[in-house]
C-alpha cells in the first residue's frame, strides 16, 4: 500500500469530491421535485399525463444510465450548437460543459426511480386518511399538499435513503462525459501511477463515509415523527 | 507461449476489432511480426484498462501491448521494452484554414486530451497557461466532442487522429492542423510493451525481436498500410 | 321523515346509487331539523355507510336532491347519464359544515393531535392559527384529551383516537355531525368513553346523524331512528316506535336479535 | 448524414454489419445477469435467514456483508473483487503447491455480480419474511410444524409475493449492472456498443440500438414478473 | 382447580412468565378433564392470551409444570436461569394435540380452504392425502363451509374464515382445543355462526379451553370459568358461582360491567 500520491494530487481529489457532492445534491433535489410531478400524474385521472409519466419511467428505468448519458451528451448535446443564438447566449458556457449533461442525466434518471417509489407510497396512504381530509372540506389540491404527499413522503422515507445512496454510487459514471469527479480523479491517478487498488480504496472510504452521513440524516428525518413500534417480531 | 494483453476498447489504427470480433490493427501486425521472429506462439488476451496491471501481475498476461506510453512514474510499477512507436503528437480542429498549432492559435481555446497520455504531459508543460485542457477517458470521446463543437481542438497521437479524419464524421467537420513542436524529453520516450518487473528474459527477447523487425524492413512494410509517415 | 317546518339542517331526498350494475341505494331520504339526533341502524351490508358517505359526497350519488342549511346542492347530468356536482367548490364548502367521524378514526398520523384538530380550521376556513389553537384546546379539554394534545395519534388508545377525531370534526363548527359506527373499532372497554362524549354532544342540542350498532345507546339518545334494509328505508320513526313497536317484519327481527 | 440503406448495412447481423456483435453482446448480458441473479438469490436466502436467525455471529457476518457491499460503488466492487479475488485465489493455490488457475471471464463476471446481488437480495428477502403476518407462522407452530417444514410449506410460499416486486427491481438493476462487467474485459452489450460505435463513428445509431435492446429486455422481463406476481397473489383479494 | 381424579386431558401448574423485568404471569394453574369446557375471562391486559399461548408453548414460560394427556413436558434450566423445553420434538408433537384457534384466524392465504385444513394432517401427522381430504371435507361440511372449500381465505367473510380455522384445528384430532377470543375480530352478525359451531363442539364433549369476552356464551357452555386478573387467578369455579356469586370484589365488578 502506497499513499504518497494523495498529497501530489490533492487539488484534483478535492475538486473531484466537490463535484461528486454537487452532482448528488443537484440530481437529488431536482430529481425529487420532478418525481413528485411524475407520481402525482401517475395517480391522476388524466389518461394522457398518466401515460406520458408511465412511458418516461419505463424508458429511464429500463435502460442503463450509461446509455442515457451518452444519448443525452453525445446525442442531444451535439445538436445544441445548431440551436440559433444558443452558442452566443450566456447559457452556452454552462450548457456545453459535461457537468450540465451529467447533472441532467442523473436528475432525469433519479426522477424516474423516485417517481415510481413515490407513486407506490401514495397508493399506500390509507384511503381513510384522504377521505377524512376531503370530509373537512379540503380541495383536491389541498388534500394533495397537506395530507397525501406529506404522508407518502414519510412512508417512502426509508426507501428514499437507499435510493440516495444508490444515486451516490451512480455518480462515477459521469467521468465518461469529461466530468472529473472523484472517481475520475482516481482513474487518472491510476493511469498515471499504475497503482491498482490504492486510489480505489481512497475513493471507497469517501463513498462509505458519505453513505454513513446520508443514512444518519435520513434516520433523523424518520425519527421526526415518532411511530409506535410493533413489538414481538 | 507469450500472452499479449490488449485493451478491449477500440484505438484505431493501433488496435481494434472488426465486426466478426477479430483483433486487427498496427499493433497486431507488429505483434505477429515479433512472434514470427521469435518463433513463439502468441495469444491475444482482451483486458480492460482497469485490468491491465492486475492481469500482468497475476500472470494472466505476459506483456501489455496496448499503446502504453513509457513514463518514469509507470516505470516504478512495471518494466518496459524499448519503444516500438513514438506517439507523434498532433492536433485536429474545425475547418477554418488555420494550419498551424502554435501558442497564438491555441490561445484561449479548449483542447480535448485523453487522460494520462503523453499529450497531456506535453500540454501541461507548454500550453497550460494559455489554453484549457479537457480530459477524456478515451480519445474517441474527444473526437465526438470535437465534431459537435464542444471543444476547439483534439490533441492526440497522429495515428488515431488521422484515422478519425478519414471517417465521414471527421471529414465533415475537421481537418489536421499539424504537429506540435518536438520536445524529446516528453515525446521521445514513446510507447513500449509493459512487462512484469524483473522479467528480464522476456524483455530482452522482445527488444531483440523489435529491433529485428525494424531492421528487416517488415516494420516499414506493414506501417505503410496505416500511416503516411514512419511511426517509429 | 315528513317533518318540514322551518329550514331543516339537512334534507336529503330520494338518493340512488349504483356500483357498476349493482344498485346499492334505492331511494333513501332523510330530514334532520336543528338539534335532531338521527340514528341509522340495519344489518351489515344494508348500505348504511354508503348512504352516510353520500350525504357528504364522499360517494357521488347517481340521483337525489340535497339541501344543507337551506342551500341546494346543484348537479349536472354527465355524459354517462349520472349526476356530477356542478360545482366542486360548493361541495368542499358544504363538507366543512358536515363534520364526519369515521369508524377507523382516520387521524393523520404525521401530525400531533393538536395539529390534526387545527388543520381544517386553519387551512380550509382560513381562521388564524392562534384562535384555532385556543378553540382546539377548548375542544380537547371537553373530550378529555388536553394532556395528549402534543402526542402523535399512534401513541393513543383507540378510544382516545376516536375522541380526538370527534374534536377534529367539531373544530370547524359543523352544522351537522355525521358518525359512521364510531365505536365499532373499539374494544368493549373503550366504547364507553366515546359514547359519553357523543351523548354530551346530543345534550348540547347538536344536530347529528349516526350509523350505529349500539341499540341501547341509539334508543337513549336519538330523536329519530331509521332502519335501512337493502338500500331502502324499511322503517323510520321515533325510537320508541322503531324499537318498541316496529311495523316491518324485518325490523322486528333485527331489533329482537339486537337485544339478545 | 446516413441514408437508410447504410443504416441497415451497419446494423445487419452478418459482418461487416455490427448487428450480430450487438446481439451476441445482448445474449452475453442476459447470461451474466441470469447467472448472477441465481447466485445472488442463493446468497440472499442464506443472508436473510442468517440475519433473522437471532444468532449473534451470523447476524454480524451478514450484516457486515450487506452494509459494505451496498455502500461501495458497483464499479469499484467489480474491479476489486475480480482482480483481488483471482489474485487471492491463486495465492492460496500457490501456497497449497497448486498451479494458478485461469478464471473464465463469464464465470468470474457471474460470481462477482452475484456476490453484489446477494447483498441486495438479502435485504429484499429479509423484508419479505418480516412482512409475513406473525400469526401465520404461529398458526404453523401451533400445529407442531418443525422449522424446516414451516419454512418449506408456509414461509417460502408466503414470502414470494412479498419479494417479487423487489426481485423485479433487482433483475432490472442486474441487467444494467452487467454493463459494468466491461471493466474486467468481458464483452457484453455496452462494450459491444462502444466497439461498434468507435469503429464506425456512428455513435448515435449504436447508442440508440443498444437502448432499444435494453428496453426490449426490461419490458419483456417486466411482463414476466407481472404474470408471476399475478399467479402468486392468486389467493389475495384484488384491491378495488 | 383441584379436581384431579383420572388422568386430566390438560394439567398446567403454577405458570410464571416475565417479559424482561415485567412479570406478566404469576403462578397460574389450570386442569381440564376430558370433556371440560374451561372459559378464561378477565379484562383487557389481564394476561389471558399470554397464559393460553404458554399452554401450547408459543410463549415459553419461565416456570411451571405441564402435562398433556398424562405426558409430562420436560424442561431444562438454561444459563439465563429460565426454563427451556429440553426436547423441541416433544413440544412439536404435543402441539399437534392442542388445536389452537386464533382471534385473527391466521389462515394461510396462499392455500385454499381445503389445503389449509389438510396441511397439518398430511405434513405433520403424515396421514395420506386422500384420507385427509375425506376427513377435511366432513369437517368443512360440519362447520357449513363445504361449498367454499376451493376458495382462498381472502374471499371469505370473517365468520367463514374463523369457521375454517376451527375446521383446520379439528382436523388433527386434538385432544384439547384452545380458543383465543375466537369471535372478537368478527362483527356482531358473524359472531353467532362461530359460537354455534363452538357450542356444537361442546355438546360433542370436546375438551376446550377458551378465552372469551362473550359472558353470556361462557356462562351457557362452560363447565368451569376462570377469572384472571393481573396474571393471577382471582376467581375460579363453575359458571353459576363465578357469574352468580363471585367472591372476589374485582370479579364481582367485572361480571357486573359485562352484563350491562
Ligand atoms: N366502492 C364500491 N364498489 C363496489 N361495491 C361497493 C363499494 N362500496 C360498497 N360497496 C358494496 O355496498 C354494499 C353495502 O356497503 P355498506 O358499507 O354501505 O354497508 P353497511 O350497512 O355500512 O355495512 P356495515 O354494517 O358492515 O358497515 C356492500 O355489499 C359492498 O360490497
Ligand atoms: N412479547 C411481549 N413483550 C413484552 N410484553 C408483552 C409481550 N406480549 C404481551 N406483553 C404484555 O403482556 C400484557 C398482557 O397481554 P395479553 O395479550 O396476555 O392480555 P389479554 O388478557 O389477552 O388482553 P386482551 O383481552 O386485550 O387480549 C400486555 O400488557 C402486554 O404489553
Ligand atoms: Mg359500514
Ligand atoms: Mg388477548
Short structural summary:
Chain A has 233 residues and is mostly helical. Chain A has 10 helices and no strands. The longest helix of chain A is centred in the N-terminal third of the chain and has 34 residues, at 10-43.
Describe, in plain words, how this protein is organized in 3D.
Chains C, E: It comes from Mesorhizobium australicum. Chains C, E: This is ABC transporter ATP-binding protein. Chains C, E: Keywords: ATP-binding, Nucleotide-binding. The complex is a heteropentamer, with 1 copy of chain A (233 residues), 1 copy of chain B (232 residues), 2 copies of chain C (260 residues) and 1 copy of chain D (240 residues). Chain A contains 10 helices and no strands. Chain A is mainly alpha-helical and 233 residues long. Chain A has one domain: Orthogonal Bundle (MetI-like fold), CATH 1.10.3720.10. In chain C, strand 9, helix 6 and strand 10 form a beta-alpha-beta unit. Chain D is mainly α and 240 residues long. Helices cover 78% and strands 0% of the residues of chain D. The termini of chain D are far apart. Chains in contact: A-B, A-C, A-D, B-D, C-E, D-E. One magnesium ion (MG) binds next to helix 1 of chain C.
How widely separated are the two ends of chain B? 26 Å
- Cofactors and ligands: adenosine-5'-triphosphate, magnesium ion
Radius of gyration of chain B: 18 Å
- The value of Rg of chain A in angstroms is 21 Å
How do the SSEs of chain B run, as a string of H and E?
Answer: EEEHEHEHEEHEHEHEHHEHEHH
The first-level CATH class name of chain A? Mainly Alpha
What amount of the residues of chain A lies in strands?
Answer: under 5%
Strand content of chain B: 25-35%
Number of helices of chain B: 11
- Helix amount of chain B, in percent? 25-40%
Total number of distinct structural domains of chain A: 1
Second-tier CATH architecture of chain A:
Orthogonal Bundle
Number of strands of chain A: 0
Principal-axis shape of chain A equals: globular
The class by helix and strand makeup of chain B works out as alpha/beta
CATH topology of chain A: MetI-like fold
- CATH superfamily membership of chain A, which one? MetI-like
